[in-house]
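PT: before anyone asks, these are the final sequences, not the draft ones from last week. 967 residues across everything. Please model them as a single complex and drop the result in this thread when it's through.
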Amino acid sequence: MKNPIVVSKSLRVQQWREFWFYFSASKTAVAGLIFLIGVVLMALFADVISPHEPAEQYRQFAKVPPAWKDGGQIQFLLGTDYAGRDMWSRIIHGSRLSLLAGCVVVVLSLSIGVLLGLVAGYRGGWLDSLIMRVMDTIMAVPGLLMALVFVAILGPGLLNAMVAIAITYTPSFVRLTRASTLTELNRDYVTASKMAGARPMRLMFISILPNCMAPLIVQGTLSFSTAILDTAALGFLGMGAQAPMPEWGTLIAENRDLMLSAPWTVTFPGIAILLAVLAINLVGDGLRDALDPKLKRS
Amino acid sequence: MPLLEIVNLTVDFATANGSFRAVDSIDLSIDEREIVAIVGESGSGKSVAMLALMGLLPWTATVSADCMRFDGQDLLGMNDKQRRKIIGKDISMIFQEPMTSLNPCFTIGYQLTEVLCQHFGGRRRSYNNRAVELLQQVGIPAAETRLNAYPHQLSGGMCQRVMIAMMIACQPKLLIADEPTTALDVTIQAQILELLVELQQNNNMALVLITHDMAVVAETAERVVVLYAGWQVEQRSALDLFSNPRHPYTEALLNALPERAQGKLLNAIPGVVPGQLDRPKGCIFNPRCCYVQDLCRQQLPERQEGVLCHYPLELDLKPSRSSQDMVTDS
Amino acid sequence: MLPFLINRLMLLVPVFFGVTLVAFGFIRVLPGDPVEVLAGERGVSPEKHAEILAQLGFDKPLWQQYFSYLGDILQGDLGVSIITNRPVIEEFFELFPATVELATCAIIFALIIGIPAGIIAATKRGTWVDQGIMGLSLTGYSMPIFWWGLLLIILFSNTLGWTPVSGRLSFFFEVDHVTGFMLIDTLLSDEQGSFWSALHHLILPSIVLGTIPLAVIARQTRSAMLEVLSEDYVRTARAKGLSPFRVIAIHALRNALITVVTVIGLQVALLLAGAILTETIFGWPGIGKWIIFSVFSRDYYAVQGGLLLIAVCVMTVNLIVDLLYGFINPRILQQRNKT
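LR: through. Structure below.
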């Protein structure tokens, strides 16, 4: 007998087409997606694209301005930093770190958050209260501060920063999943499944979870962009990726002393962060409009 | 001179699927102290026509008419500021959902005195007595205590009474009631209708009653306008309409009433009201009309004596009846 | 109102204990030898080690340590800073007004510009005005706040010379510390022009800190207004012949603000996080800069105390926002009273 849970291929294709129809209705979302794909490609092919080694120091070319300004050179498109390293190459390689941070943070916080949310919503009772109080506690401390405290314990570094940030994002996923779970629990199909003898795990992951996907996807996208910002913030404060890693926030930190004499060293990494986050936010908005018309912001 | 004169009113909406004509060439003329009912199914454009008159349609709507005059003033050519002097004061409108039509953040007293203050100036507090008077007029007990109540503390029927009080506060010459009883309990419906008729008589108002309930029409209206999918298919006096409907749609509508059912099945009209994308060629009712001829499918009908039909039903001279008889008559 | 308040407070109690657990646990999970890490003593004899350990309170069972910690907190003793040897709570409250002043100005900036922007975008929906405002707001919260600050310093302080680079007051002025709020203290002092100097120093940091709240508030106001403007009671207000200004500013806005107030409350937690970055960039002597300095200089008691106090601040603000919410929307109060 055919497993009714498995959706036929043609139905999936049709769902994708419908999704793409709504998504592509927003030109800004598509523009954001294209830019994002560009950044991903840039990160994947960083070694090939980048004109110089990110760590290579050209001592005689320290603090060279961008190519279009006086004194700029074409080989250093966006200028060089205090040690003569090419800014453009460093930014290209930095994209890897930012995207990695975004992925790790979202994967961690989403998976833990969804698991806890499902359990809290499904089980209810004292377990629910406990989980929610723990989440409330995490939310009572501002995210960056919490991340700083964790990094203070674990020591500075990109990996620790990512874990710390992931912990601060978990509560929002828990809340979302729990709220969706509670709504779904009241529905007839869940009662029917229970009566048919479905085990809790099956019920939670196969029946309930797919119906909570839309808000989770939207939140996941937003968290991706915030993760990049927070990773950069920690990098800027010296608690995230450590120099000479070309993480964008760290780049700004290590060139802060030059900010007045060589402003390009500080401006361009920031623009990179801004554009990447903007692209992701545009995609996120497009996703929200496409996935649930009720959540439409206009 | 009629109080309200509308000639060839048309309303188009700009939608994602192109332009949608919600109201198509409506003519309506109302005299002072007259009660007119506008009847039609959902989507017939009855609310839209009156909202167009009041200037309450969203920006996606385009309103056009050959003539839209109220009390001698041209409503079409008016700018918003001039229109706001008339709306709420000489023409008023009450809506279908009384519970959501009142602002939940302000007290009843505030909302009542606000409209008086807007049109007659002065301090809002000075109108408190008048507000109490109005509440008593619409039959709300313990009116003084209600001034400080919030809408969510009142029942649906009470909210509708408050709405009515608010809209007759400035003693309008014309009151438009858009399905005022649809969202209320059956027992309250009769009370509200009675109230409206009473107020109409006491305050010398003209009343336009928008409804889909034929029994209500039979009870209260002097004249009836029947709308279908934005078209005005028939306009007659109530007595004549019920005894001799001349448009096939009106006849079908009356036949579909439960009181006229024979046997176990209701005489439903086959088919559905056309949506935006499936407007038929020719007469708009032709897919569902049981008297349809070839001409109906090809050409738009002309209006003959208030009936928009190529082949209006034959006149059948019958003496006038009571309203109950009118409804059950077959 | 009172039962509502008590209800809310009851919900906060477990969270408060949770935060104390986190603060308590923070010290306990620090890697390394507590004597070395917390007292700075290394290479001591075993007897001295045990003595210092007892001094720190580490020799007792964990649960007992927690309760004595709890007891200390409730008496206002949050430990002593390893660096300055002053009570943490004293240091915190000395620097707290600076951050409050900055955050308040930031929020005022965000509200004064954000709410009207959102209203305009909603009423002119679909036009380039709407798209422009929304585009700017999207850019606003996609920016790294520290970079934005540096950029504005480069532009306005350095290139144009319009604003000062750092600090709260030009060093020409000597003002007595009365309240800790520079705007008030300068008014109270008799130093001519000090008030304007204080204001001058507040401009850029407030704009930087307030940019993200501004963007969020503008977006939220717009979407709340759009929803409200399509409600029946707005149509009724228009049907009464009220002027557009009255319909929007009084009937629609009051209801739209309900959602916006909640958002403002959420922004406060973010403001405190943003303050850490803003104060670092502008050399603003508030708790943000203090906490970063403490983390870097391994002043763990200061971090612990700061963590707890900041969390309490966030909880308090959220409580106030909840109360405000109940005040604006009478229905919420009624419902709460029934439960």
